Structure of Phosphoribosylglycinamide formyltransferase:
Amino acid sequence: CRIAVLISGNGSNLQALIDRFQNEQHVQIAVVVSNKADAFGLERARRAGIPTKVVPNRSFDTREAFDAALMAAIDQHEVNLVVLAGFMRILTPGFVQHYSGRMLNIHPSLLPKYQGLNTHQRALDAGDKVHGVTVHFVTEELDGGPPVLQATVPVLEKDTADALAERVHVQEHLIYPLAVDWFARGRLAMRDDGCTLDGTLL
Ligand code: GRF
């Protein structure tokens, strides 16, 4: 399975994928694409010998033009799966449809709770006792596609958003490679009413 990983920043999830699959045949990170030239994740990719591409969103007048350039950069590498790993751009419907059933995202909350930004602070403000992270297929609804896998973390007394984010990240690095592994082995598929793991509706 050839995958493209899309990033905008640090790329710790990218690193988890690199570490998990570098000695495996069934998943190959074909390209890492960033909309930011200074994303540290690009450095992680280079160190691992993975081709990188920067598509700066600021160079494009419209979202459609940016997404078309992004699509061209990805499709050139003939990938089976697009993995969003801290990619901080909202994608157009045309882009999402192009990769329908072939694009995963990781979102730092227990979806459907806290779609969008500042999830850790919002969980704290709400007084939640449990927080977490979700891997889901990407559909046109922002952070709304069928969930594949979730992990929970406890919210501790006197927790801060940063401390909570760090605890969530540990879980992210465990579940994202797992979901990609399932997809690569043909165990995971998106359907109209959700998604399936080895035939079982999740
Ligand atoms: C993660 O918290 C992920 O859930 C969210 O963006 C962040 C990316 O972190 N979508 P990193 O760049 O992988 O370290």
